[in-house]
Design goal:
Elements lengths: L1 H6 L4 H23 L5 E2 L3 E11 L4 H15 L3 E7 L5 H10 E2 L2 E3 L1 H11 L4 H8 L3 E3 L5 E3 L4 H9 L5 E5 L3 E3 L4 H7 L8 E3 L3 E5 L5 E6 L8 E8 L5 H10 L10 H13 L3 E2 L4 E3 L8 E3 L3 H6 L2 H7 L1
Parallel strand pairs: 1-4, 2-3, 2-8, 3-5, 10-14, 15-16
Antiparallel strand pairs: 6-7, 8-13, 9-16, 10-13, 11-12
Helix pairs in contact: 2-3, 6-9
Amino acid sequence: MASLLSERRLPWGVSQWLTRYKQEAMRRYCDYQALATRPYATGEDCPHFELHILLGHRHVGMTLWSVKSFLHYAGRKYTVVLHEDGSLTDKDIATLARHLVNARIVRKSVADEQIREQIKHFPNCCAYRFSPKETTDHRGVKYDMHIFALRLFDFNLLSAATKVLVLDADVLFFKKPQEIINWAEDPADRNSLFSIEQYVPLRNVRYEVTGFERKVPPPTDANAGLLCLDKRAYDLEAIETWIDRNRELMDKLATFEQHAYNHLVKRKGGSMALPDSYSFNYTDDTVVATHFAIKHLFFGNLHRLQHILA
C-alpha cells in the first residue's frame, strides 16, 4: 500500500507546499552551515578583474558558499563586489563583511542614485532599471523580474575593472577554474567566456528530478549566471537600441537581462563557451562548477564543500 501511495501524483497545491517546505528547511540549514566556514580575504589580486554577484536576504548563505568555493579553488584573493537587492539587514551586512573580508557591498539605495545619473540619457535603459515589475514563479513566489537589471547595469557601471565575472549565488565550484583564471589574468584577452544550459532535467510523476539528458539541438546562448565579460564589449548605446527593439519582452521575460548580455557578446564576437565541465544543474565528480538553478540540488551538494571550506 505504501508503495502504491508513493507512486500517486499528489494534488498540485499539496505537492508545491511540500516542495517549498523542504526547500526552505534545506535553505535554513545551508545558512547555518555557511556560518561555520572560514573567512576568505578579497581585494588583493588582479586589480583589473572583479567578481560581481546580486543577492538579497534569502541568499546570504548561498552567496558565502558560492563565492568562497570560487576563491578557494582559484587560490586567489580576487576583488568581490556584492550588490544587494534592497532586502539585506544590518546583520546580513555584518555577516558578509566578516566572512568575505574587504568585499565591497553596494547598497541598492546608493546604487539607484549612481546608476540613475549614469543612464539618465538612455530612456529605455531607465525604464528597465527603475520600473519594478512584479511576477510570480512556478512555485507561487512573487518577485520583481526587473531586479535582474542590476546585473546588466550595476555590475558594469559601478566597476572600474576591465573584466567582470557575473556570478549567480546558486553556482558552486568543485575544482580549480583554470579557464576563468587564465582569462581573468590576461589583460590582452579581449574576448568573453560563458556557460550554457546544456542539460534538461527528467522528472517522475511527483515532479522529482530523476536524471538529465542533453538538449537537442545543443544550445549556443550564454547563461548569465556564469559569464566572464570583457567590459570592452559593454556599450550603453547598443543596450538602449536593443531594448527599444525588444521592449515588448521587457515585462514578459525574467531573463531579459540575459538576452541583453547575449546581444552584447554576439555583437562583439570572438567569445566562446566554457567547456562542459561548467555545467547547468547536472553535476558529477568531474565538473569544475555547476549552476544549480534547481535549488534543492544546490543545497544537496554542499556536503562536497563542507570539509574543504570549514
